[in-house]
Amino acid sequence: MKCKACGGPAAINMRHHKLALCGEHYLEWVPQQVQRFIEKYQMFSPQDKLLVAVSGGKDSLSLWDVLLRLGYRADGVYIGLGIDGGVNYSDQSHEKIVQFMAKFWPQAKLHVVDVEQTYGMTIPELSLARRREAKPCSVCGLNKRHIMNRVAVEGGYTLVTGHNLDDEAAVLMQNTLRWQVGYLARQSPVLEATHPKFARKVKPLCRFYEREMAAYAIVRGIDYIYDECPHAEGATTLFYKTLLNQLETNSPGAKLSFYLEFLRARQEGLFQKAHDEVVLHECEYCGQPTSAPGLCSFCRIWDRGADAREPAGELGLPVAGG
Ligand code: SF4
Ligand SMILES: [Zn+2]
Ligand SMILES: [Zn+2]
């Protein structure tokens, strides 16, 4: 297989694009494509301040790298979840980010929010204490969303996440099989801020296959955390990813067209009604928008405010902030 640009040996073959490229031309092609999608979906302009949610994985580190290479003003945010899983997962993730910055972008700025230091418990501890669930994913997800949104709104940032095509297609499949129209209405490369305390959210990698981002990280020499979070095992999205990969093997490009045709239908207003029906309230405690009146789910899980099951002080949790 030869590089289409220079005829040298190809490092990656993308059957769905009928395109093979060598390492050097691949490192040029990825940022060009990212820039194309930024413009196509009107994600942001060079004047905007961007906040990249970095986890230490290939997608978020590659995305941050590409945005900085393209000259955008992109800072990072890392949330220390306190997940150990026998492999020191959170510490290792943080370490990868620090190494990445030292190697490529020593001037870049990283906001770090350590959940245990800030709120008093790690995510697995919080999940066990409040939900009696050993699997902390739902608690983790709501904490990440809340904290990232808070940091982005406070800093006047557009929030940028590294969701790739495999992530988006898996979520799409999950929501489609249950016809979750409310969720489908909100699945988009750009989520406008529908409230002053909601950050605008964008996903510049939504059209890149997972293996394309892994290839970018490897060719560029970005060392990332290879292992999934120890709690990801058995997650439903992984199951849908496997199904979609089988589909893709038989029919290259199936994943991409599944996603793109959904975006087209959405653009044509197929889910508009569900989108318009969402009414937002402000959380009584932290002020972040929430779909139900009273406390937001973040404040409820941290037992904040008048409706709290236990007073925050007794648990040594901070009563103000966030
Ligand atoms: S797998 Fe679950 S616990 Fe781990 S980072 Fe993802 S949501 Fe959080
Ligand atoms: Zn080449
Ligand atoms: Zn709240």
How would you characterize this protein structure?
The protein is α/β, with parallel strands linked by helices and 322 residues long. The protein has 2 domains: 12-278, Rossmann fold (3-Layer(aba) Sandwich); 280-322, no CATH class. It is built from 13 helices and 10 strands. The strands form 3 sheets. A 6-stranded mixed sheet has the order 5-4-3-6-8-7, sandwiched between helices. Strands 1-2 form a two-stranded antiparallel ribbon. It has a two-stranded antiparallel sheet with strand order 9-10. Helix 2 (58-69) packs across helix 9, helix 7 (165-177) packs across helix 10 and helix 7 crosses helix 11. The longest helix is centred in the middle third of the chain and has 19 residues, at 137-155. The protein is globular, with a radius of gyration of 20 Å. Mean pLDDT is 92; it is low at 307-322. The chain binds iron/sulfur cluster (SF4) and zinc ion (2 copies). One zinc ion is lined by residues 3, 5-6, 8, 21-22, 24-25.
